[in-house]
Amino acid sequence: MSTYNVTEVLVGGAVLACAVAFGVYASQSTGLSQSGTGYELGASFRSLEGVGVGTDVRLAGVKIGTVTGVTLNSDTYRADTTFTIVDGILVPDDSAIVISSEGLLGGNFVEVMPGGSPFYFEAGDQVEDTQGAVSLISLLVKFVAGDGGE
Questions:
Q1: Strand 96-101 relative to strand 62-73: parallel, antiparallel, unpaired?
Q2: Which of 57, 71, 96, 139 is the S-S candidate for 65 at Cβ 3.0 to 4.6 Å?
Q3: What pTM was computed for the model?
Q4: For residue 98, what are the domain limits?
Q5: Is the same domain home to 62 and 88?
Q6: In angstroms, rounded to a whole number, what is the distance separating the alpha carbons of residues 95 and 92?
Q7: 132 lies in a domain?
Q8: For residue 31, what pLDDT is reported?
């Protein structure tokens, strides 16, 4: 009977080790384990469809930050967004921030379209040049209905 108990303990330990390994992997792949180093920028969007806290901020397809806050501005009816950019990544102050899609079935992310200015955003700055999310469903409906925007 003692071998039965030893087997149970070994299998339980293996399951627990797998669970811990999966937890570590999940936290690293989602960015939860990254330290909070970086600087915060803000932007205001007409439509923030598919973007929330934790959404990636990317430059040239590489993750450089994370969306840290989303609120509705009751005066302008726009989505005020804050995001953190990793220290060491300098964003020119004439850059645009665009909500992009990963594809037809993918989610949305925040994309930084860098400008050519020799000056850079500093912590707390507001990005003025923004483009909100484009709804693929509304574009498809317009196409099917034959409304070419004329």
A1: unpaired
A2: 57
A3: 0.65
A4: 39-142
A5: yes
A6: 6
A7: yes
A8: 55
Instruction: Give the integer Cα–Cα distance in Å for 118 and 7.
Output: 65
Same domain, 91 and 121: yes
- Sequence length of the chain is 150
Is 74 within a domain?
Answer: yes
* 147 inside domain: no
**CA count, 13 A, side-chain hemisphere, 49:** 13
Alpha helix locations (H) across 1-135? 2-29
Instruction: Report the C-alpha gap between 101 and 146 in whole angstroms.
Output: 24
Q: Which residue has the tokens 């050519």?
A: 116
In the predicted model, residues of the chain with pLDDT beneath 70 are: 1-4, 27-36, 104, 135-136, 147-150
CA distances from 60 to 19, 40, 64, 111, 114 (A): 34, 19, 10, 8, 9
Considering the domain architecture, whether residues 29 and 64 belong to the same structural domain is answered as: no
d(CA 27, CA 145): 45
Q: How far apart are CA 134 and CA 138, in angstroms?
A: 8
In contact, 48 and 72? CB cutoff 8 Å:
no
What would the pLDDT profile of 61-78 be if each residue is shown by its tens digit? 899 999 999 999 999 999
Are both 71 and 126 inside the same structural domain?
yes
Q: How far apart are CA 28 and CA 19, in angstroms?
A: 14
